[in-house]
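Researcher: I'm comparing several assemblies side by side, and this is the next one on my list. It has 884 residues spread over two chains. Same procedure as the others: predict the full complex and return the structure.
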Amino acid sequence: MKTLLAALALTTALTLPGIALARQVTLTTTLNPYGGNGAYLALYVTDAQGAYKGSLWMAGGKSRYYEHLSDWYRATGGDTAEINGITGASVGAGRELSITLDLADALFDAGYVLHIDAAVEDMRNSPSEIAVPLTTAGAGQPTAGRRYIATFAYDM
Amino acid sequence: MIRLLHRWPGLIAAVLLIVLSLSGAVLSVFPAIEALGVAAITAPLNVADLAARIKSVYPDVEQIHRAPSGRITAFWFDAGTPGGAVIDPATGMGIGSADVPALQRWLTTLHRSLFLDDTGRIVMAVGAAAMLTLALTGVLLVVRRTGGWRHVLTRLKGPLTGRIHVEIARVAVLGLALSAVTALWMTAATFGIVPEPSGPPAFPTVSGQAGFDLAQMQALRDTPVSALRDLTFPYPGDLTDAFTLQTDQGEGYVDQGSGQLLAWQALSPWDQITETVYMLHTGQGAAWLGAILGLMALSVPIMAATGTLMWLGSRIRIRHNSSAGQAETILLVGSEGGSTWGFAATLHAALVAKGQRVHTAPMSAFAPDAYAHAARIIVLAATYGNGAAPASAKGFLDRLIPSRPVPMAVLGFGDRSFPAFCGYAQQIATAAQAQGWPSLLPLDTVDRQSPQDFARWGHALGAQIGVALELNHQPVIPRTQPLTLLSRRDYGETVQAPTAILRFALPHLPLWRRLTGIGVMRFAAGDLIGIIPQGSPVPRFYSLASANADGFVEVCVRKHPDGLCSGQLFDLAPGDTIRAFVRRNPDFRPSGTRRPVILIGAGTGIGPLAGFVRANRQHRPMHLWFGARHPASDMLYDTDLATWSADGRLASLTTAFSRTAARSYVQDALRRDGTRVARLVAEGAQILVCGSRDMAAGVADALSEVLAPQGLTPAKLKAEGRYGEDVY
């Protein structure tokens, strides 16, 4: 369980009005036992048109591999300033990554989409393996990934 | 210093290096297996055609990947399930699983990080740095040991573990150094110490169109499959997306509506170096190199084992070591590899057993002012390479100034087959004399760690200082076997040189041991047999005149007036038994060529030479010069030599007799036959000399004269491995 106050990071990364209204959200990503090395995961938010808004978490410490998180890399140009202070270890096959952060209320029910790019050494890239709209109704509903991610859910 | 830098990283990192090398050796096989399984591309093929071919078989293809080995893999997404396969480029059909074998992945992680992630990567990088240090210092040590860069590849002498260690290292050192350097580079790249990859270019503005015929896309048509790394397809239905193309030159985007290249980022020189380093380390894309490096990696466990054994062998503990100020005897040791310390320990223990107070120290600790009660100084000095001072003798010659005259004895340790035999010991003896140190004993030498030489010198030392010294330096007590005398032939009684050719039966072994070969004595003529006489623990060595293939053990023994062992041997009657062991002497035997062999011997020295001739069933031209006292009395092997001359095993026989009217020695015969000897040497003849030390010196002088017109000397021939001596 990783807990952090991401509100400040988000004010710089996600230029949203009404940031004072925030709620605590737990993002839980469970990986398949895909039989490979630890997965790099990039969690980030786009708007309804797919335009990048900001990063929530980066699982994986070596920036030389970030280009394999191809959607995130394409959106950010691989800029590590986007993930300053919100970087952790890669996630082993079959393991779970759980992050708790304060997300602005305005992110919900406004068409924003949460994406997860995944990449594993010697295995194919999996950009936007998860792409779920952020809605209050969708909280607690698990979404299945297609290759590395078994399920993803956000709880408020 | 260099030796320490070689020893300690080697010992500390040994286990780590064994893990690294064994996992690396197994991993090196995978690129070769992969390369063997690659479907060949017969006609030139471009990426557009390949992609179209694959898409016709797998309509939902998302990614096409080409490994450096040439293996092509495709990944697709079909009805919510991802799939992948190795592709035959000729058909676009899948022909095998795209997954990396689990064993390979497991070994890769072990090899790279010991399953400890970044901590493990750093540990393994330290291992690679240790390997590099070992390779560099090892090369310097071999250069020093062989006496210079020009001699680095010469044949080695000395104990077997050391020879194995260096022989293997000479083959493997370049590969190991390459693996270590590339490993360090890869670690630096992983930790971002070398510049990061340039990555893809910024995403360009796309046409917003889709559906252009894949086979007609110009950017893909322009790229041959041999240059392809990776082609990623745009998301189905996403008009803002593009093809991502990676080649061995760089990375860019291809518009899905026009087939044109939109943006391109070439590989930086750093990227290219890192890619080359990756190929050199893993063998991916150069399977043959990987296999060679893998084979070389297999040498690491052997070198770790032999290196550790060498270190253990060099760790000698000196017991009852008195202080420098109190000792009567100061024992100074100049040793490079440590073997001389073993002799020092034996001498130290023998003197202590006689009630002496002895101080043993390295020569570098020489401090004449501190030796207040010293009655004698004994220097045991090895020579390294071409007459250089050994490591533990640093600065000794500079401090060799007497504050009071203490008698000094110098014993040199070396290898007679090197030109500068005991050169450093000679320097010390000369300098000591010049500085006015009284001589306790004249300079003496121990050849190739000979226990006999050492014991003989011990007797001389004991006589000088008034104690009976028996120096039995036998690092490993060999296992002896019983030998029963079959027959004896006696010679030389009438010329005061009683000599016998003794023939023993091979030890009788049970059938299972003969079948399995366990405990079977294996020897060739020229090897030594060690016999431990009753009344002394020190073995005496005799040159063997037969090989185990002959089915008997044969030696020539001359009875010496006070000889303990020769007396006991001489008293043997057929049926009597002695205990003996074999010691190999691989430097003294005919080489495996068809060139002539010049055999020179006197007295019992004919023994091994007769053995060589007896075994000469290939009828290689062997010419024997033999010196004895009188043809009627001590012409050893007289009947055999006649037989061998008749059947072609012996090409010529020349004799010299010292107790006939001619009064000729074997060296006189060589001078007389100078032209013939010189011609044989010019044909590439090998010279083997066996006999007493004086006789060998006389022979070397005679041959120096005979060979001078050719610009050759015995020393030069020795350096080429064409001059072997077995002297006693």
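Model: For your comparison table: Residues 1-18 of chain A have pLDDT under 50 and may be disordered.
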